[in-house]
Write a structure and sequence with these properties.
The chain is mostly beta strands. The protein has 1 helix and 15 strands, in the order H-E-E-E-E-E-E-E-E-E-E-E-E-E-E-E. Strand 1 (39-42) and strand 2 form a beta hairpin.
């Protein structure tokens, strides 16, 4: 099921990319971005403030919120705090990791181990997944699992997404204040996103 969803997202992304050639970007940088100050230590953990937020724009209902710039994930929990609380206001809500090479989405199952084809391809061929938690306004924690390739990297990074285990989903009667991530092995990311997808945008 993940492979089918991943392929559909690939075509959706390709379509969006074509449209963006004649439109402004679906995500715009905040003028307050300062990459040199993106990560700071707070209570022995790293806190990264949201730097981008762009809501739905016609003709698209899907959107993304950039909640971190470049960051290295490791065994220490990193807490990401969006400027505005996140909402579950579309059909699918996910956390997307835009990978920095040599880390890649194992979309084509080139890796090895129990996570082959379903995780992040490491330079040595292992496939791993970080632990990702989303915390709501009341402190309830939602654990996420690998959900497929949002933008397959074709061996050149890519963005992979994590969502609640099927058939679970994020409740819509609340907002989400924190995303927490840690990884059993160091992984470099260009950015971390809250991805809100509408099936209305699917071909």
């Amino acid at each position: 099921m993940f492979q089918i969803i991943s392929i559909r997202r690939f075509f959706v992304t390709s379509f969006c990319a074509a449209v963006l050639l004649i439109q402004s970007s679906c995500i715009k940088d905040s003028p307050r971005v300062n990459n040199s100050n993106v990560v700071s230590t707070v209570n022995n953990s790293n806190a990264v403030e949201a730097t981008q937020h762009q809501g739905p724009q016609p003709p698209f209902h899907s959107y993304q919120v950039k909640i971190s710039g470049p960051v290295t994930l490791d065994e220490t929990w990193i807490e990401l705090h969006p400027e505005t609380y996140l909402k579950a206001d579309n059909d699918l809500q996910e956390v997307g990791l835009e990978l920095e090479q040599p880390f890649n989405d194992d979309f084509f199952s080139k890796g090895k181990g129990p996570n082959k084809g379903k995780g992040i391809l490491m330079p040595d061929g292992d496939v791993i997944n970080p632990e990702i938690e989303v915390v709501d306004q009341d402190g309830n924690v939602f654990d996420l699992v690998y959900g497929g390739g949002h933008i397959p990297g074709n061996g050149k990074g890519g963005t992979i997404i994590y969502n609640p285990p099927y058939p679970q989903e994020f409740p819509r009667d609340r907002e989400y204040k924190t995303v927490r991530i840690r990884s059993p092995r160091p992984i470099k990311c260009k950015a971390v996103y809250w991805v809100s997808e509408s099936v209305k945008d699917w071909p």
